[in-house]
Every structure is written in structure tokens, then in C-alpha cells.
Amino acid sequence: DLDQCVGDDATGDTDGDGVCNDQDACEGHDDSLDADGDGVPDGCDQCVGDDASGDTDGDGVCNDLDQCLGDDATGDTDGDGVCNDLDACEGHDDSLDADGDGVPDGCDQCVGDDATGDTDSDGVCDDLDQCVGDDATGDTDGDGVCNDLDACEGHDDSLDADGDGVPDGCDQCVGDDATGDTDGDGVCDDLDQCVGDDATGDTDGDGVCNDQDACEGHDDSLDADGDGVPDGCDQC
User: Fold this and answer.
1) Nearest of 28, 26, 27, 22 to residue 6 by alpha carbon
2) What is the value of pTM for the model shown?
3) Do residues 74 and 85 touch, judged by C-beta distance below 8 A?
4) Angular region, 41: left φ>0, alpha ψ -120 to 50, beta rest
5) What span, in angstroms and rounded, lies between the C-alpha atoms of 58 and 37?
6) What is the pLDDT of residues 175-192, one digit of tens each?
């Protein structure tokens, strides 16, 4: 009837909770208050629930009662086990990541590593892209340009010796195909040296190639009497 507290009265009961200091589980607080019933007085409780299970995400809810990774107070709207405050893809399951790029499927922009981008917008990330364009159409000629964008199917679009924008495999002439090849010698008009086959040359420099020169050694364009025979070869 003279005992002041449970334990050694000589140590005192500083917080007045009826537990002597030598046996006090939570000095400065009432040992009898334990709202979550985990054996840890409320004054020293680290989290709601069983402190022994820990509080991995530090949200004040012990792991044994934790509803989601993150702050339980923010909720888990999409029910994927990740709280809203940490949810990488709200409205979708963060655990689903088919291509393993760290972006949940529900927010994935492309198959592969989203960080590399999807330059051609075909749904295949650049790190896995097989060709420029829609990978789904394939790349029959293996030139790195998908069939839907291939400028010259069956040939390598990257080969363009004359730099006219037309791949060699579909080039009509050396030079700018857009200028045409009036004399059909395989040299485009923008680079044509003479009318006719440039390969035969233009020895007299009159603009008419040797294979079509009417008067070799003379200028075919000079015809004073208008008879169709260049002056250099005119007999009369």
C-alpha cells in the first residue's frame, strides 16, 4: 500500500505513469497507452502497427499494416500497391513493365527504353528500332529504312553517289534527276557536257557529243546558209 510504482521505488517514477524508472519502457510517457497494441507505448511508437515489422517507406504505418509503398495517407487510387505520392503511372499498375525500361506499361511511349526516344514514332524505341519508319512494315532490302518510307525498295537508300536525293538503285542519271536526261546518255541535264553521249566526248567543243557531231572539228551551230550543214563542212 506504500508502493508508488511497479519496479524499484528508489529509482523514482519521473513521468508518473506508475512504472518505476528502472522498468519504464518509455520514459517521459505513459507506458499504459498503446493504441495499436504492439507492446510499444504510444509515446515511443515509431509507426502505427507492429514496430517490430519496421516502416520501410517511412510513412508512419508499420509494414504489417502498410497498404502501399509510400505515404498511405495519399491513398492508392489505382490499387497497384504504390501510394499516389510515389506512383510512377497513376491509373495503371506500376509493376507491369513488359520491356523492362522502368516505365510502367500504362505510361510506356514505345517498346524499349523510353529514354532513347522514338524518333520515327512507330511505337518502337530508338534502342530497339530496326529501321526508320514503321518497323511493322519491315525492311525488305535491309537498308535501315522501313518499307513504308523506303525511297527505293530493293536498294540501299543511303547510297547516293551524285547527291541528288535519289538512291543509286533508282537513279535515272548522274546528276539531278529532277532536271531530266534529255539526250538519254545517263548524264542528267544539269551536268550534261554535250548533246549526245558524254562518254564519247566533245572534241571540237561545240556542245554536240562526238557520237552525234555532224561536222567534227567544227562548230555544228554555225550554218550561215541555213542548209543544215555546218559551215565547217559546207561544200557550197
Assistant:
1) 22
2) 0.45
3) yes
4) beta
5) 20
6) 999 899 999 999 999 989
